[in-house]
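Hi R.,

As promised on Friday, here is the backbone we talked about, encoded as C-alpha cells. Could you run it through your design pipeline when you get a chance and send me back a sequence?
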C-alpha cells in the first residue's frame, strides 16, 4: 500500500501539540554537551511509550530501528542532536530554561522533538512501507570532537548500514513554512586555535629589561589576518577570528605571557591544511623575530560538510511535493560548522534547514544568542516533512 502525502500531513497535524510539548520540556531542561543523561532517559522513555525501542550509544546517545513490513530493502538514517549551550537565556516565556547558564540556543530541542514525532508517525505506518528507518539521537554536537565522530566509532552506522542519512536544522533566517536545501559544499570546517606568547615580564617603565608579550601578541594578531587576505584565494571563503585575548598584567606591569584563542573556518580540506600551516609559520616567525616564543595548540574540529548531490536533489523534489515548490529555497554557503559532516564522510548525506523565523511575532534572533527562540508552527510540518523524505528515500531504486 502506498502512503500518501495527505496521511503524513494529517499525522503531523495530529501530533503537533505533542511535538510542542516535547520541545518545551526539552527547552526547560537543557543539558550541556556529553552531559545529556536526563535528556537521553526522557527521550528513551517517551519513545518507548510509542512502542519504539532504542539502545544507548556513546553514553548519552540513542539509536533505534523502525522496520517496515515488507522486504528488507533500503535503510535510511535520520539524525537529531540533543545538547545545549553554556548561555544564560533572556526570556520571559513560561518554557524558558530552568537551568542557570544553560540554554537550547541552537534549536537542538526542536530537532529532538521533531525527530521523536517523525519516529512516532513512521512507527504507526510501518506496516505500509518496506525497508528500515534508523533513528539517531546524538549527544555533543556543540563540542569537539563532536558526538557524531564518537557514535560512528561506536558503530552507529553499522548493523544495518544506512544507504543515506538525513539531518534537519532550524534556520532563524528562513521564514516559518520555508525549507532550504543546498547541493554540494555547504558548511565549513572548524578548528580551534590557541596561542600562548611567552616573553619576559617586568615593570612597564623598564622596557629594555623586558620582552613584551603583549606587543608580540598584537603583531601576531594583526599579521595573521593575511592568512585570509593574502593567502586564501578570492573564491575561497575563509574566516580567522580571535575572540579571546588575555594578558594578566596591569597598567605598570608587563606580564610574562599572553593567551589568544580563535577559530579558523574553511570550505576546502586542502586549503584548510595549508591555512593552518600558515598560522603556525606566521606566529612562530614573528615571536622569534621579536625575542619571544609561542606555544601553538590547534584543536582539529569538524570537517567541511558536503551534501550529496543526488540525494539532496531527490530530497528537494520530495520536499517541493510535500510543502509546495514556492516554499523551497536555495541555501547560501555558510562558514558555520556542524559535526553532521562526519556522517557525510561515510555515506551519502544531506543536511537541510527548517524555517523558524517570524518577524510579526518578533522571532528574529540568531542561533547562539540569549534571545533565540522559534515560531513553534515549524513543528506542525517539520516532523511530517522528515517522515515524507525518509519514505521517499526508502522507495528510491538506484539505477
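Update: got your reply. Pasting your designed sequence below so it's all in one thread:
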Amino acid at each position: 500500500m502506498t502512503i500518501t502525502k495527505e496521511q503524513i500531513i494529517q499525522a503531523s497535524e495530529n501530533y503537533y501539540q505533542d511535538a510542542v510539548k516535547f520541545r518545551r520540556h526539552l527547552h526547560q531542561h537543557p543539558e550541556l554537551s556529553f552531559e545529556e543523561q536526563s535528556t537521553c532517559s526522557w527521550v528513551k522513555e517517551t519513545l518507548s511509550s510509542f512502542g519504539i525501542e532504542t539502545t544507548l550509544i556513546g553514553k548519552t546517545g540513542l539509536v533505534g530501528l523502525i522496520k517496515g513490513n515488507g522486504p528488507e530493502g533500503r535503510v535510511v538514517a535520520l539524525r537529531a542532536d540533543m545538547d545545549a549551550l553554556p548561555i544564560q537565556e533572556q526570556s520571559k516565556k513560561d518554557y524558558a530554561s530552568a537551568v542557570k547558564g544553560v540554554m537550547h540556543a541552537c534549536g537542538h530541542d526542536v530537532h529532538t522533538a521533531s525527530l521523536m514525532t517523525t519516529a512516532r508517525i513512521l512507527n504507526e505506518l510501518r506496516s505500509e512501507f518496506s525497508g528500515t528507518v534508523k533513528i539517531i539521537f546524538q549527544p555533543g554536537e556543540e563540542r569537539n570532537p563532536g558526538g557524531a565522530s564518537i557514535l560512528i566509532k561506536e558503530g552507529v552506522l553499522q548493523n544495518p548500514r544506512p544507504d543515506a542519512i538525513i539531518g534537519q536544522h532550524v534556520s532563524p533566517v528562513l521564514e516559518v513554512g520555508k525549507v532550504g536545501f543546498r547541493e554540494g559544499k555547504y558548511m565549513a570546517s572548524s578548528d580551534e586555535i590557541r596561542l600562548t606568547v611567552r616573553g619576559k615580564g617586568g615593570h612597564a617603565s623598564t622596557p629594555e629589561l623586558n620582552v613584551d608579550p603583549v606587543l608580540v601578541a598584537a603583531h601576531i594578531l594583526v599579521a595573521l589576518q593575511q592568512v585570509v587576505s593574502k593567502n586564501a584565494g578570492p573564491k575561497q571563503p575563509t574566516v580567522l577570528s580571535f575572540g579571546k585575548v588575555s594578558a594578566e598584567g596591569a597598567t605598570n606591569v608587563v606580564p610574562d605571557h599572553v593567551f589568544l584563542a580563535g577559530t579558523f573556518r574553511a570550505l576546502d580540506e586542502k586549503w584548510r591544511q595549508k591555512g593552518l600551516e600558515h598560522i603556525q609559520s606566521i606566529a612562530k616567525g614573528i615571536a622569534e623575530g621579536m625575542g619571544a616564543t609561542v606555544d601553538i595548540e590547534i584543536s582539529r574540529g569538524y570537517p567541511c560538510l558536503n551534501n550529496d548531490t543526488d540525494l539532496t536533489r531527490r530530497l528537494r523534489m520530495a520536499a517541493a511535493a510535500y510543502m509546495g515548490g514556492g516554499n523551497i529555497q536555495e541555501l547560501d554557503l555558510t562558514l558555520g560548522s556542524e559535526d553532521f559532516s562526519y556522517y557525510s564522510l561515510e555515506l551519502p548525506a544531506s543536511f537541510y534547514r527548517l524555517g523558524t523565523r517570524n518577524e510579526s511575532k518578533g522571532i528574529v534572533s540568531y542561533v547562539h544568542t540569549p534571545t533565540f527562540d522559534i515560531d513553534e508552527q515549524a513543528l506542525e510540518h517539520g516532523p511530517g516533512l522528515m517522515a515524507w523524505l525518509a519514505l521517499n528515500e526508502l522507495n528510491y531504486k538506484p539505477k
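One thing I noticed while checking it: DSSP finds eleven helices and 16 strands in the chain.

Thanks again,
M.
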